[in-house]
Specification:
The chain has 351 residues and is mainly alpha-helical. It has helices at residues 3-23, 34-46, 50-63, 73-108, 122-127, 129-137, 147-157, 159-171, 175-188, 194-210, 221-238, 250-269, 271-274, 277-282, 286-302, 311-339, 341-348. The two termini are 16 Å apart.
Length: 351
């Protein structure tokens, strides 16, 4: 890991978090608004690269330094208890407490029920302790965005097997074949099997780390521009013409290398902006934004609708709210970190 790659991962992670915010900004109330549907559909397809990119980066970082080979894995897993498992538990408990408090508040002020879905706990609480624990921590976690961390932790538990496969393929100089196999499997998997997707992209990151692939894009710029055009073209055209449902599988395969290469081009051309202190500061709170954005984002996106429910309001809110919320969450994280560094450290796993 060097300074360039560290900053690249930090910026790409921030972009991915913003994409996640756009995914969760989807307005179910806007199904009868044609322009909004086109915008939401296009952006939603563009943002399909976010989660695979997170898995890819996570796999790269996990397998990057293995001085003792497979014996390095237990130490890495112990570290992930602090950086992933503890934040996972805390964020879910806080979200559960939020919904309990919200239900109590709405019991007193029913009109507030229009701002957020408060009926998350009803069935689980009625069915007993086990169902409640499953709701809070497992299937799905009550902070539903944390399904990514849940699946990532499962992939990490299986990392000894993944390491053996990757190491064997690299030693046998078959890493290219393994990458092609990963691509083919990624194309074939159904979108409803996110855990398999986690294994695929996490392993791809491990192949890049153990195989020592270059951190900067080494292909001609023209190829990057072609990939970028394809990445921008497919989701947009798909809103006007019926495309096969599996076309979404191609978007990360095209979008991730396009974003990876475009970053290198921009970073070398406009280094002043990527090294800006203010910009860097806002890229330092991405994990905090990820942990706290639900259910807070759900409240943020409903606020403009209290003023107007016109299509213009929906569109403006959809475009602007994720950016506004990201800045707000960064400021909130910065405030908590300043007031109580230990609480912030534990909540974010030291990130």
């Amino acid at each position: 890991m060097n300074a360039y790659l560290s900053k690249k991962f930090k910026i790409l992670s921030a972009i991915s978090i913003l994409m996640v915010l756009y995914i969760h900004m989807y307005y179910t109330e806007g199904k009868s608004l044609p322009i909004l549907q086109i915008i939401e559909g296009t952006m939603g397809q563009y943002c399909l690269v976010a989660v695979p990119l997170f898995y890819l980066i996570s796999g790269y970082l996990f397998f990057l330094k293995m001085p003792e080979g497979i014996h390095s894995i237990p130490g890495k897993l112990r570290k992930r208890v602090r950086t992933l498992l503890i934040p996972y538990i805390i964020a879910n408990i806080l979200t559960f407490a939020f919904y309990v408090a919200l239900n109590m508040l709405i019991w007193e002020v029913p009109s507030l029920g229009n701002l957020v879905n408060f009926r998350v706990l009803d069935d689980a609480l009625e069915n007993g302790l086990w169902d409640t624990l499953c709701l809070v921590f497992i299937n799905p976690p009550i902070a539903f965005q944390l399904w990514f961390i849940r699946d990532l932790m499962v992939a990490m538990i299986c990392s000894p097997l993944l390491y053996a496969i990757i190491k064997w393929s690299v030693a046998a100089k078959w890493r290219i074949i393994l990458l092609f196999a990963i691509i083919l499997i990624a194309l074939a998997i159904p979108s409803k099997v996110p855990l398999l997707s986690a294994f695929i992209w996490f392993t791809a990151g491990g192949v890049a780390a153990i195989g020592k692939y270059p951190i900067e894009c080494s292909v001609p710029k023209s190829y990057i521009y072609i990939l970028s055009v394809i990445y921008l073209f497919i989701p947009f055209v798909g809103q006007f013409y019926t495309l096969a449902p599996w076309i979404g599988h191609y978007i990360p395969l095209v979008g991730i290398p396009a974003i990876w290469g475009i970053y290198d081009i921009i970073a070398h051309t406009y280094a002043t902006y990527t090294n800006n202190r203010l910009t860097t500061a806002y890229f330092s709170y991405t994990f905090f934004v990820y942990l706290c954005h639900e259910p807070l984002l759900n409240i943020f996106k409903k606020l403009p609708l209290l003023i107007s429910r016109s299509e213009t309001t929906f569109i403006a809110s959809y475009i602007l709210t994720p950016i506004i919320f990201y800045i707000f969450a960064c400021c909130l994280g910065r405030l908590i970190k300043a007031l109580s560094p230990k609480i912030y450290y534990v909540y974010t796993g030291g990130r």
